[in-house]
Amino acid sequence: MLAALVASLPARATVLWSDREPRVIHETPMGEDILGGAVKRDDTASDALYFKFRVDALSDVASEPYYAGFELFESDEYRLAVGNAPEAWGYSAWYTSETGTSKGVAGEFDLKSAHPEASGLGLFKQYELPRHDHQRTIVFKVQYLPGGDDLVTVWLDPKLSRGSTDENQAEILTTKFKANASFNQIRLRHGGGGNGWIFSDMAVATSFSDFVVVRFWQTWWFATVSAFTLLAAVAIGVRVVERRRFQRRLQLAEQERALERERSRIAQDLHDDLGSSLARITLLSGLARADARQPAQLEGHMRKIAESANETVRALEEIVWAVRPGSDTLQSLV
Description:
By secondary structure, this protein is of the alpha+beta class. The chain has two domains: 11-214, Jelly Rolls (Sandwich); 222-327. Helices cover 32% and strands 25% of the residues. It has three helices and 14 strands. Strands 1, 2, 3, 10, 11, 12 and 14 form a seven-stranded antiparallel β-sheet that branches. Strand 8 (118-120) and strand 9 form a beta hairpin.
């Protein structure tokens, strides 16, 4: 059943290229193409592409000045780059058609961040400085426009959990500008101070949803299987409880039947013993009447009647003791 549910999952948008393995990039001024011709767009394109990569800045704020970036190339022509621009000293884009307001360096655009740098008491700069061991995921969208600059949207460390889309990302994570993003190569570049950057988890896709991480316990099929499992567990639990109750009722019924059999046996014994005793008493009483004028014989008959009566009383006491619930204790024997 699980295999059938997995097979029925709807198809997702297309991942056009991916490279999940980490790459340490250090002193690679021009870089080398890692795309291998898998994807390309030129000035005639009119669709949208989404790019993702994750970085750990071995070169960080203490290593400035340097540059490091995930850069689009069209043959050997520089196109849009995202990372740490040569003059930015912060997460930024360069080779842009617009200039950011933070530093005013032409062709560079600082990226907004949820972790902006402090610039004074209660004051913050717009951008974030790269720091080693503070890994960041960067996703950017390029909406290609034929014959003109393309529209670029960059999210620095966006939410990629279930239900996340490019439309519900926080404004503080979102940077928009224009750039020429035509490409047939992707190169990872670093130059300047420090030990470079580690790039990993890179991909190009046609939808933001391809980058959303949906844990298996968040999927509808897992919820369905869990519901069935829970219902099965409840059904089994109810069955076990009912079975135990049934077995208990059988035990009680068997005990009642055993008690009834014991009562019947006692009644039969009582009937036999008392019948015999009463018959003897009746017989002795008849003999006593017949020998009423013979004192010695009468006395013997009366003694035997008394003995029989006493035996009958003792037998009745034993039967009453045996069937009384309180008689099965040690104190009742004393």
